[in-house]
Every structure is written in C-alpha cells, then in structure tokens.
Amino acid sequence: MRLQSKLTLFSAASKIIILLLLVMVLPPVINRIALLSTDQRLLQKKEQVFDIIEEQGIESFLTGDEDSAYGSYNLLKEEFISMEPIDPSQINNRIENTLRKVEGEIVEYRVLSLAFELHGETYLLEIGRSLDTIRETSNTLQRYALYFLVGVVLFTVFIDLVFLKVLLRPMRLILRKLKRIGHPDKFKPTPLPTTTSDFIYLNDTINNMMGQVQDAFRKEKEFIGNVSHELLTPVSILQNRLENLMADPIVPDEVLPKLAESQKTLYRLKSIIQALLLISRIENEQYLKNESVNLRALVQDVVEEIGDRAEMKEVTISTSLHDNLVLPNANHSLLFTMLFNVVNNAIKYNKEGGSISINGSGLGNKYKLTVTDTGTGIAEDQLPKIFRRFKRAHATDGESYGLGLAIVNTVAKFHKIKLDVSSKLNEGTTFAFVFPKSS
C-alpha cells in the first residue's frame, strides 16, 4: 500500500475513533447543557415574575384571599408558573425534576421552587418547564451536532488527502526519476523542488548513491573491457604457436593429443573473453543502432545458419510469423546473436527427435516473438538466475560457459526488448521477446 494511502487511512481512522468517542460523550454532555440552560431560563423567568410583582403588586397573581393561589400553564403544558401562600416552616428552595398532574395527565417537569416574603406573608413561587421539551431540544442539538461532526470529519479527511498529495509530491518525483533509470549511466542528479528538508536529504542521498553506483559500474565495465581486450592478444599468440607446433614434423605423435587439448582450452578461453568483451561493448553503448532489421528475414537467417546443428540432433524447426515487423533503429548483428543463442540452446538441450517453434504476431502496439522447445526445461527456482554471467541453467556439458543468455539479456535491454522466460522440467522452455513496434 502506498504511503499516501496509509497516511490518509490513518488520518481517517483516527478521526472516526474521535468521532465515535464524541458520539458516546455527546448525549450526556448535551443533556447536561440543556438542563443548565433550562435552569438559567427558569431563573430568568423568576426575575421577570419579581419585576411584575414589584411593578403591579402581588395582586396581579393572587386575589388577596388567605387561601388564594395562582397557577398558569401554557397551551401545550410545556411551561407553568404557580404561586401560593405557604407556612414559613415549609421553605425549601430548589430546582428539581418532579411529576405534576395537569388536567388528569401526569407530566414531568423541571421545577424551580422558591419561597419569598412580601408584606409579612411567605409565598412559594414555582416555575416549571416540561422535561419532554427539554429532551426534544437536547435530541435536536445532538442530531445537528452529530451532522456537524460528521461534516467536519469528512471535510478534514478531504483536506488531509489534498495536503498529503501536495506534501508527498516530491516523493512521487523521486520515484518517477528512479523508474526512468534504464541504465546507471543514464542517471543525472537533479535538485528537488521542495522546501521539506527530509525530502531534500533523501534526494541528495539518492543522487550521491547513484553517483557511487555509476563510478563502480563504469570501473567494472572498463576493467572487463580492458582485461578482455588485453587477454585476446596473448591467447591468439598462444593459439598460433600451438598450431605451428602441431604442424611441425619433429613433434612426437604422443605429444599431439596434449597440444590439441591445450588448443581446445585456449579456444574456450578465447570464446569467454570475446563474450565478455561483447557484453562490455554493448553496455558501454559502443554499438550503433542505425539499421532497419526485418524480423522475418532475421529469423530465416538464424534458421538457415543453425539448420545443420538441428539436423544432427534430429530436431525440427518450424516458423510462423504474422504481421511482419521491421525495426527501424536496430543492430542486425546483435539481434542475430541474441536470437541465435536462444535457438542454439533450444537445440543443445532438446530431446532427439524434438521440435522448436518460432512464432511471431502483433500484440497491440507491440510485437511478440516466441521460441519454444520440447527440451529438458529449467527448474522454476533457477529461472531468475539464468541471465547471470557464468550461470549455467543445465548440467555442465563441457561447451557452455554461462554467457550465452547473459548476452541475450544484454542485447534485449540494448534494444528495449522485454524478455520473459517460462519453463517446465521435462516439457520445454519458451523465450518470449516483446518488441516495440516503433523506436
């Protein structure tokens, strides 16, 4: 999972957890706030009643009789005010929830009870508000608070997503730059357009690391190229000397087999040096890609060149190429070597009487060429290693040096050809080359 997705999910999950906690805490908090608000409202009503009594006298509420009392309920019985004379010993000022019977209906109220003295008389003032009204207000507050919280969470998640996208843009630029590196020599260190010190440090570190890789890679290629080139001369001299010795009539017959064996060893050494030199030159891009190569003609040339070897092992080669491809910018010699090595391996490790099929067809904007044999196959755990230098996918045969497929892979990369291999033991192997139709 991408870093941006992880950070966004973490941000969203943390906000959802906070939202759930708030949802759990919200009802009792809002209920408490509603009650405090109601109590404040009751106290304000009390002040209003006292203002009326002060202006109009107690008679505006009481008729003046000794046992007279006042009670007033609004239309929906949501609020009431009552006043009556009481014994001074009954004074008990409080705000509490209590039940009242109103017109035969039991209603639960939040009631302010307050005793006060006026003209030597003690009166009890009660102001109440229906708890159902309070609960309705509380539920409305809870609902809108929940909507607000959900909106805030969604908005902040969106803002976080946009911010993370902007914040992580330098990371995407770094990854894009690394993906475009097809070859260490192609890498060019570039500054990163950001003010985030962490990303600047990461970019500088990658630039320094790639610089070291380029130096190491360049030294390795130079070493291989120089050593291979320097070794060819003495090996060729030794070969000529052995050939002269073998042609000299004074050399005893019993020495000739030893000289022939030495000649064979030198030939193998020269082949290895030439293969390494070829790989080094391709990697150093010392070959030009200035030829137009007809793929069908190239396959036919390889089949004709290698036909005698196939006949010796009684292996049949069949070709079927549709939608012929012409590569405009290529190197015919290298492509020939690439295909020749694959077909040569298909013959070498095939069964007697086996077959090789070379098929080609268009694949969208690409062209796919496959070479399939009925040979011994390659173990699945060995497939990732077959393109390594000096790695032999099959048992030692005395002829393979483990460089043929390394050359194939190097030529494919040089021409930007995608190379895939699939194989099953004792069933055969398929090499698939996917060519770009334009270059």
UniProtKB/TrEMBL annotation:
Q: List all membrane-crossing ranges.
A: 7-30, 144-168
Record's GO cellular component terms:
plasma membrane
The yes or no answer to whether the keyword Phosphoprotein is present is yes
Q: Outline the extent of the Histidine kinase domain.
A: 226-439
Which EC number(s) are documented for this chain? Answer: 2.7.13.3
Any GO MF annotation of the entry: phosphorelay sensor kinase activity
Sorted keywords for this record are:
Kinase, Membrane, Phosphoprotein, Transferase, Transmembrane, Transmembrane helix
- Where is the protein localized? Membrane
**The name this protein goes by in its record:** histidine kinase
